[in-house]
UniProtKB/TrEMBL annotation, chain A:
It is found in: Nucleus. Pfam families: RNase_PH. GO terms for biological process: nuclear mRNA surveillance; poly(A)-dependent snoRNA 3'-end processing; rRNA catabolic process; rRNA processing; U4 snRNA 3'-end processing. The lineage of its organism: Eukaryota, Fungi, Dikarya, Basidiomycota, Agaricomycotina. This is Exoribonuclease phosphorolytic domain-containing protein. Coiled coil: none annotated. Residues 271-308 are annotated as: Disordered. Keywords: Exosome, Nucleus, rRNA processing. Its main location: nucleus. Residues 281-293 have a biased composition (Basic and acidic residues). Residues 12-148 form the Exoribonuclease phosphorolytic domain. It comes from Neolentinus lepideus HHB14362 ss-1. Residues 294-308 have a biased composition (Acidic residues). GO terms for cellular component: cytoplasmic exosome (RNase complex); nuclear exosome (RNase complex); nucleolus. Belongs to the RNase PH family.
UniProtKB/TrEMBL annotation, chain B:
It is found in: Cytoplasm; Nucleus. InterPro entries: ExoRNase_PH_dom1, ExoRNase_PH_dom2, ExoRNase_PH_dom2_sf, Exosome_comp_Rrp42_subfam, PNPase/RNase_PH_dom_sf, Ribosomal_Su5_D2-typ_SF, Rrp45. Belongs to the RNase PH family. The keyword Cytoplasm applies. PANTHER family: EXOSOME COMPLEX COMPONENT RRP45, EXOSOME COMPLEX EXONUCLEASE RIBOSOMAL RNA PROCESSING PROTEIN. Residues 31-163, 215-263 form the Exoribonuclease phosphorolytic domain. Keywords: Cytoplasm, Nucleus, Ribonucleoprotein, Ribosomal protein, RNA-binding. Signal peptide: none annotated. One of its GO terms (biological process) is nuclear polyadenylation-dependent rRNA catabolic process. It comes from Neolentinus lepideus HHB14362 ss-1. This is Ribosomal protein S5 domain 2-like protein. GO terms for molecular function: mRNA 3'-UTR AU-rich region binding. GO terms for cellular component: cytoplasmic exosome (RNase complex); nuclear exosome (RNase complex); ribosome. It holds the Pfam family RNase_PH.
Length: 308, 296
């Protein structure tokens, strides 16, 4: 089994970095990165006043803009925006705030492909490779949580999975090796790749460390290039199942990391005492609420700010 | 979605304070917000902020065939579309006045003022030249996005390194950054932009008065100051006291003895400080990277 260029195990994620940017004119903003590449920044504003022609009488209008790092948005950006719209239409409770607009703007901060692709990679990674798409979904979820004003069914976490060329089995009895969270250097040599996005929501009970929160696959773009493989013992659906399970474990790790940083976000946010209290009520993301804990934290913040 | 215009108490409070030379954020009238410059891991990626206003710039380069009328020069494209991230009042597709002002100013400062030596971008005359693409992303608009964008743009161009290219006859070899150290762009000078905003001096409606009323001038207006100002003056100069661009599009009429001291005294001094700051930040960042480049 070939080792990965950066020495990670097959199921190891790169170090995740989450920063709440606190952009001045947005209600919520977050920057997410896998390792030092695949960094994206998302800002969320809402519920705000919509344009008259896009106002919907019983639902919140969802508007998503995706901007690449270099040059102006192209068709790929519009496609990614459509994908995000389908994911977040299911995540945001759209019927709670009719006649309003939720505006999500995604900014890619790094190029997802390392120059000099050999050309044997599966599909056309283009401007938005699997790492970037996963990062976009994660930063959008974090920005929505950071805004706090938009009711959510849960948090969407995404990771990419790939099958490196070297792992194509020669003997018909072996199965291929899959790797979690391929880095830009690895992407050029993948013969199958895809992003899996999971909706994670502890609506009923809060899991303690080690327990698994309930997950639901909400979107995937797995594509597999099987040219050259003549005999494989497992079917393609079985491989897809393995990829999905590997991604699910990775998404849960991402979710735990998000949970850690969210508690820090609440303490850092310098909000007026009344706003901190009302945020606890509006926020339907019950996964982030420790039973009774959030209200207590809000009160503590309130006291600190009063002293100042 | 346009934000509501400032209320009358906000307006009156701002004007009264400015008449007493007080600014709402505690700055002096001609004091700029402290700029910060952050560099990314890739060369040519820069994020600048002036207070809460944040702009990011990224440069990339590719080789293209030059147009037949200019075979010896490289190409520079500047993309500066403002997204709704900067503020919900910017809608994609609909270019607001501020966006147009930013685009035109960036074009004048970075392209028309010949800051970048285009002939040095030529690889093989008539066949291959470098096409530089500077993309400006406005992340947060808290007043004076133009200065921040210009700063980010010029710092990104100074920070960027293009791969070394070897030309033998008609053969062009591009050396990747891992083989040979990439080269900086050849910049003639470093233009930096400053924005002044004008406010009425007397409490009567100065905008309708035809006589040249004295105005209060502030440097680097904040968001509220930008919305309520009577007019702007954008000046771009370099540290060598050379004027690149003066833009005053509309707004309250000013006499030359109001404008000239601003440029000759205030702008020159500020640009010198800013230039020194930019150089020191670039040097710091390059020191940090040197250890990765020198090892061969």
């Amino acid at each position: 089994m070939a080792s990965r260029p950066d020495g990670r195990g097959t199921e190891e994620l790169r170090a995740l970095s989450i920063i709440y940017e606190r952009l001045d004119r947005a209600d919520g903003s977050a920057r997410f990165a896998f390792g030092t590449s695949n960094s994206t920044l998302t800002s969320v504003s809402g519920p705000i006043e919509p344009r008259p022609q896009s106002e919907h009488p019983s639902l919140t209008t969802l508007e998503i803009h995706v901007r690449p790092l270099h040059s102006l948005p192209s068709t790929q950006s519009r496609h990614l925006a459509a994908v995000l719209k389908s994911i977040f239409s299911q995540t945001i409770l759209l019927n709670q705030n009719p006649r309003t607009l939720v505006q999500i703007v995604v900014q890619a901060l790094s190029v997802s492909e390392v120059a000099g692709r050999s050309g044997t990679g599966a599909g056309t990674a283009g401007v938005y490779g699997p790492g970037t798409i996963a990062s976009v979904v994660n930063s959008a979820s974090l920005a929505l949580v950071n805004a706090g004003s938009i009711p959510l069914r849960g948090v969407v976490c995404a990771v990419a999975v790939g099958r490196p060329t070297t792992s194509v089995p020669s003997a018909p009895t072996t199965i291929s090796t899959l790797v979690l969270d391929p880095s830009p250097e690895e992407i050029s040599s993948l013969t199958a790749q895809g992003v899996f996005a999971f909706l994670i929501s502890s609506a009923l009970s809060v899991p303690s460390a080690g327990q698994e929160p309930p997950t639901e696959l909400i979107w995937s773009n797995w594509s597999s290039n099987n040219l050259g493989i003549t005999k494989v013992s497992e079917g393609e659906m079985a491989e897809l199942g393995r990829a999905r399970e590997m991604a699910r474990q990775g998404a849960i790790k991402v979710w735990w990391k998000m949970r850690e940083t969210v508690s820090g976000m609440e303490a850092e946010t310098k909000r007026l005492p009344e706003m901190a209290g009302s945020r606890a009520i509006d926020n339907d993301v019950t996964g982030k609420r420790r039973a009774g804990g959030e209200e207590d934290e809000g009160d503590e913040n309130e006291n600190d700010e009063m002293k100042i | 979605m346009r934000p509501p215009s400032p209320s009358i108490p906000e307006r009156e409070f701002l004007f009264t304070s400015l008449k007493q030379s007080l600014r709402l954020d505690g700055r002096q009238l001609l004091e700029m917000r402290r700029p910060t410059i952050t560099f990314g891991t890739e060369l040519g990626w820069v994020e600048c902020s002036l207070g809460k206003t944040r702009v990011m710039a990224a440069v990339d380069a590719k080789m293209v065939k030059p147009p037949p009328e200019r075979p010896y020069e490289g190409l520079i494209t500047i993309h500066s579309e403002v997204s709704p991230m900067a503020s919900p009042e910017y809608e994609p597709g609909r270019t607001s006045d501020e966006e147009v002002a930013i685009t035109r100013m960036l074009d004048k400062i970075l392209r028309r003022s010949d800051a970048v030596d285009k002939e040095s971008l030529c690889i093989l005359a008539g066949q291959r030249v470098w096409h530089l693409r500077l993309t400006i992303h406005c992340l947060a608009d808290s007043g004076n996005m133009l200065d921040c964008a210009c700063l980010a743009g010029i710092v990104a161009l100074k920070h960027f390194r293009r791969p070394e290219v070897e030309v033998v006859g008609n053969e062009v070899t591009v050396h990747p950054p891992t083989e040979r150290a990439p080269l900086p762009l050849s910049l003639h000078h470093t233009p930096l932009c400053l924005t002044f905003a004008f406010f009425p001096e007397s409490s009567s409606r100065a905008a309708t008065s035809t006589s040249s009323t004295k105005t209060t001038t502030v440097l680097d207006p904040s968001l509220l100051e930008s919305t309520l100002s009577l007019g702007f003056l954008h000046v771009a100069l370099n540290a060598q006291r050379e004027l690149c661009v003066v833009q005053k599009a509309g707004g309250v009429p000013l006499t030359e003895d109001e404008i000239l001291p601003l440029i000759k005294e205030v702008a020159v001094a500020k640009v010198r400080e800013l230039d020194a700051f930019v150089e020191s930040r670039l040097k710091e960042d390059w020191e940090g990277r040197k250890m990765f480049v020198e090892v061969r």
